[in-house]
Design brief:
alpha+beta; 2 domains; 3-stranded antiparallel sheet; about 10% strand; rod-shaped
Length: about 110
Amino acid sequence: MSKAEERAFEVYPKMSRITEPHGIIPADYKSHYIGDANEEKRIGFVEGYRQAEKDLELTWEDVSKIISIDQQVCGTMGISDYTHNHQQAMEEVLKRFKERKVICQHT
């Protein structure tokens, strides 16, 4: 089971549907069981989850922006080339990247 499917079951657990004279209602498994009332919701949840993963996936353009920001940050902090391994610099790179990504999404 994928992560998306696991989350879908957490949010929309299996729920029985039964037939009654006035239609289909959620109920226990002892009645006239005709299926899982939450199945369609889980399918939609999984599709939305997978689309969100695609939307959030980094592209080569994103990586290019990250490298550019990294070079700028290192220049301002006086760190030469890629000999650095400073959490502070990486946090600043991440912050600036997120800011640029938001700006690009709004244009």
